[in-house]
């Protein structure tokens, strides 16, 4: 029975490689429409903590890292161990507090990546950069008026 069938270890490696391509980081997944989401299971419970929806896999992975660090401590397996700041004391946090901290980190990373992508796309184009949109609810100040 040495036919054209793969061994079980080869099949497992093939599945792992396919899984690795779909899911580049631990604790995240991609929605059908392209957004990356992160969530984590609470220890000793069946419930999950929702960590948010992000436009990049790195932002979702950083949110996951923050949550897993607060849940499991410095021994947790992280996607980016070099990015965790250990200046906060590790103490028991509620699920809501962990969610809040993780979404703050994820949103910050997402915003930084979006501005980096936007900056690189404006550098590659020969068009001049856009000016900031003015706040239409604010009265113009004398130094910014065009009447000079």
Write the layout of secondary structure elements.
Layout: H1 8-22, E1 28-30, E2 36-41, E3 48-54, H2 57-72, H3 95-124
Antiparallel strand pairs: 1-2, 2-3
Biased composition (Basic and acidic residues): 9-25
Family: Belongs to the AP2/ERF transcription factor family. ERF subfamily.
Region (Disordered): 1-26, 114-148
Could you explain how this protein is built, in words?
- By secondary structure, the protein is α+β, with helices and mostly antiparallel strands.
- The protein has a domain of 91 residues: AP2/ERF domain (GCC-box Binding Domain, 2-Layer Sandwich).
- Helices cover 41% and strands 11% of the residues.
- The protein contains three helices and three strands; from the N terminus they run H-E-E-E-H-H.
- Strands 1-2-3 form a three-stranded antiparallel sheet.
- A hairpin with a 6-residue loop joins strand 2 and strand 3.
- Helix 2 runs antiparallel to helix 3.
- The radius of gyration is 22 Å and the shape is extended.
- The termini are far apart.
- The mean pLDDT is 78.
Which terms summarize this structure?
extended; DNA binding; 3 strands; GCC-box Binding Domain; three-stranded antiparallel β-sheet; 41% helix; DNA-bd_dom_sf; 3 helices; alpha+beta; 148 residues
Sequence stretches where pLDDT stays below 50 over 5 or more residues: none
Radius of gyration: 22 Å
How many beta-strand runs?
A: 3
Question: DSSP strand (E) fraction?
Answer: 5-15%
First CA to last CA: what distance? 90 Å
CATH topology of the domain at 26-116: GCC-box Binding Domain
SS-based structural class? alpha+beta
Query: How is the biggest beta sheet arranged?
Result: 3 strands, antiparallel
Q: What is the CATH architecture descriptor of the domain at 26-116? A: 2-Layer Sandwich
Summarize model confidence as the mean pLDDT.
Answer: 78
**Order of helix and strand elements from N to C terminus:** HEEEHH
